[in-house]
Every structure is written in C-alpha cells, then in structure tokens.
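User: For a reading group we're discussing how well predicted structures match intuition. Take ABC transporter permease. Before you show the prediction, I'll give you the sequence so everyone sees exactly what went in.
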Amino acid sequence: MKPINQRAWLLVLPVVICVAFSAILPLMTIVNYSVQDILSPERRVFVGTEWYAAVLQDEELHSALLRQIGFSLAVLAIEIPLGILLALCMPASGWRASAVLVIIALSLLIPWNVVGTIWQVFGRTDIGLMGAALTWLGVQYQYTGDPLDAWLTVLVMDVWHWTPLVALLCYAGLRAIPEAYYQAARIDGATRWAVFRYIQLPKLRGVLMIAVLLRFMDSFMIYTEPFVLTGGGPGNATTFLSQYLTQKAVGQFDLGPAAAFSIVYFLIILLLCFVLYNWMQRAGTATQEESHG
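Assistant: Thanks. Here is the predicted 3D structure of ABC transporter permease, as structure tokens, for the group to look at:
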C-alpha cells in the first residue's frame, strides 16, 4: 500500500499560525484576565467567576444588550429586503451592469470612521444636506440632542453603508440561476411574483444566509460609526455593546470585568448566530418542500 504523503499539511501551517496569533492566543489571554483581579501589571488575584456574576447582573449591560438586539433586528429587516430589491432592479449584463455595480459598491469603500464623519456633517441642521432639508420641512430633527433622532440616524447610516453588500451578494446569486428555469417559467405563463417566489428566492437561500449572518454579526459589533457620529449619546441612546465594553476596558480600566464581558459578548454573538442559522435552515427547507409540493 502506497504511504500517504502528509507533507501537504505544511501548506496549511501558515494559516494555522496566523489564526493562532490573531484569534486563539488573544482569546486565551482574555479568558485568563476574566478570572483575575488585575491590581497592577505585576500583581493579580484569582477571583474565579466573580467578574462573570457581576457582569451578568449589570443593568447597564442589559440595557445595552436590548438596544443592540433591537438595532440588529432593524438592520436585518431593512437591509435584506432592500438589498434583494436592488439586486432585482440591476441590469443583468452590458456596460450598464458594470457601471451600476461600481456605483453600488462605492459606499463599501469608505472607511468606518469616515462614514461617521460624513453623516456627522450630513445631519447638521446648519450645513448638512439632510439636517437642513428636514428643518426646512418643519421636522424637529436634532441627532445630538434627541435619543430617537440619534438612534434613527445611526440606523439610516448603517443601511446606507451596508445595503450594497447585500445587493451585491444577491446579484451574484441571481446571475448564477440557470436560464432554463426562466424559460420553463415563461412557458408555464408564470407571473413575475411567481418567478421570484418559486425560482429566485429559493435559489438565493444560500446567498441570503451568508448575507444575514454577515450583517447580523457586523451590526452586533458596530462601534466606530456611532462613536464618531454621536459618541454613544445623547445619554446612552446609541451606546451599543461594543462601546459599553470599550468604556469599561479603556475608560475605567477595569480589565477583569471587561475581559469577562468580552467572553459573554462573544458567547451571545455565537448563540444568536447559531439560532439564526438554524431558523433560516428550517425556513429554507420548508420553502423547498412547499415549492416541490
């Protein structure tokens, strides 16, 4: 029997090393910090799960978690349907398709901190286009002073920044559908809604799953844009989980509680992504059974 050449694993070694240094080792360091009271760089006291208990009982954490979940659900409810609609309206081929793809992707090229600065100016009532227009229409808009205005501004900013990603993913999924499906639909006299419902949407299931998970994870970890735009205010209206964590770790220098919260934060994202993934899998299976039936 010919021996198996194991040297191919050496090609994977650089990836393993990169993952170890970028993810595994920092995670283990955070776990170590989360069970210690760090009094100074040279002095630490083991406290076990004390910080975890304190973090889980923190009312500010509960408020930030509710704000974060509400924001992420709002992002998904707007960006996924809007991204699908944009993808359906985009040209299928030709120079128009190339031009639209470039224009759609422009917002994705802007760094996160610059996005916050753009909308900081855009929302001003004296020189900002949106703020001045709303004031001219008689709307009392002040994202720096009104909690609802601040929250909605962050939401609209995120929709503007990241909906193109969903649209591009859906566009790629639509272009991958064989033409034979559309030909069969035309022969059967299917309406446009029927084509979308029974051909395009089921075929987009894998792409949509990727889009939903990416947008959920990213929106659940949002930090830079609201920090630049509102600084987490007014009050705590836009203080999401990542900003709450930063305030604990950097602002208060509570490394032990901050490390424990980081682990809890990680587990919350992991759990919610797992639930969301399984729900989408079951929904997709039910849709396929209905279409075959």
